[in-house]
């Protein structure tokens, strides 16, 4: 599986669409997630529809002590890996997350656990001196807001981590791309009030794969979120703190 792509957090809508977009280009796929039944169904569908080799393994984000073993097992099955897409995330109840036990879980899944599995992927790709890492962060990390600051803080940390990896792995020929989605029509956003300019998972998957053929290190999806966030980031703090965002 020399051209295989690992998808971490593979049962999310964005991850499924991204896996399908890679499979359509002939890449073999390794799916990582916690739901064995769902992973098996997705892998079987990809293998049949695109005539590629699709495998899967159980990955528990919170169990960071297991990440090295998971990665070694995945590599034993794949043989080789071309790149990885980090698509896992946990929004959680942001009101409840104001109490730190739940807030800590949101931060741990979106940042600490993400950094843990990416560290194994980065070391592998750096040794091979080729490949790519695509990390799905969020526009929520561009500026802390009262509505989702535990989630946003974790994504801000992930964006900084990916930036550091990009600086480190550039010298080894490994590409690191940070993807910052706006609102996407997924289970994570289902029923949320105030959503606008909502993109489909299929659009996201196709654009994530297409990002490998472009030079940008940080990709906002859809593209106009770059300018929306540029405005939001430049609102003076004295004014911003009075807003209810």
Description:
The protein is of the alpha/beta class. The protein has one domain (4-241): Rossmann fold, CATH 3.40.50. The protein has helices spanning 13-24, 36-50, 67-78, 100-128, 149-169, 201-210, 225-233, 237-240; strands at residues 5-8, 29-33, 54-58, 83-86, 132-136, 175-181, 218-221. The chain has a seven-stranded parallel sheet with strand order 3-2-1-4-5-6-7, sandwiched between helices. The termini are far apart. The mean pLDDT is 93. This is Short-chain dehydrogenase. Keywords: Oxidoreductase. InterPro entries: NAD(P)-bd_dom_sf, Sc_DH/Rdtase_CS, SDR_fam. One of its GO terms (molecular function) is oxidoreductase activity. Belongs to the short-chain dehydrogenases/reductases (SDR) family.
Number of helical segments with 4 or more residues = 8
What string gives the helices and strands in order?
Answer: EHEHEHEHEHEHEHH
End-to-end separation: 46 Å
CATH architecture title:
3-Layer(aba) Sandwich
Query: Mean pLDDT score, rounded?
Result: 93
Largest sheet features:
7 strands, parallel
- SS class: alpha/beta
Overall outline: globular
Number of strand segments: 7
Beta-strand percentage?
A: 5-15%
Our count of domains comes out at: 1
Do you know the CATH topology? Answer: Rossmann fold
Across the major sheet, the strand order is 3-2-1-4-5-6-7
Oligomer: single chain
CATH superfamily label:
NAD(P)-binding Rossmann-like Domain
Q: Kindly state the percentage of residues in helix.
A: 40-55%
Task: Report the CATH C-level class.
Answer: Alpha Beta
Rg on CA atoms, Å = 18 Å
Low-confidence stretches: none
GO cellular component, one term: membrane
InterPro entries: NAD(P)-bd_dom_sf, Sc_DH/Rdtase_CS, SDR_fam
Protein name: Short-chain dehydrogenase
Family: Belongs to the short-chain dehydrogenases/reductases (SDR) family.
């Amino acid at each position: 599986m020399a051209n295989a792509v690992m998808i971490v957090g593979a049962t999310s809508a964005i991850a499924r669409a991204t896996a399908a977009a890679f499979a359509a280009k002939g890449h073999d796929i390794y799916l990582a997630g916690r739901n064995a039944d769902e992973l098996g169904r997705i892998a079987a569908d990809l293998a049949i529809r695109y005539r590629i080799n699709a495998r899967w393994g159980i990955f528990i984000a919170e169990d960071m002590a297991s990440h090295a073993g998971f990665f070694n097992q995945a590599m034993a099955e794949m043989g080789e890996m071309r790149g990885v897409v980090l698509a896992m995330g946990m929004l959680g109840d942001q009101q409840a997350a104001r109490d730190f036990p739940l807030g800590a879980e949101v931060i741990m899944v979106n940042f600490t656990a993400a950094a843990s599995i990416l560290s194994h992927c980065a070391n592998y790709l750096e040794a091979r001196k080729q490949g790519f890492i695509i990390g799905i962060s969020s526009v929520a990390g561009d500026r802390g807001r009262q509505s989702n600051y535990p989630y946003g803080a974790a994504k801000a940390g992930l964006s900084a981590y990916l930036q550091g990896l990009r600086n480190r792995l550039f010298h080894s020929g490994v590409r690191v791309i940070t993807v910052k989605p706006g609102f996407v029509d997924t289970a994570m956003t289902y029923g949320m009030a105030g959503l606008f300019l909502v993109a489909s998972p299929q659009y996201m998957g196709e654009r994530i794969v297409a990002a490998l053929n472009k030079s940008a290190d940080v990709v906002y999806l859809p593209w106009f979120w770059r300018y929306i966030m540029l405005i939001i980031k430049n609102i003076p703090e004295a004014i911003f703190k009075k807003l209810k965002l």
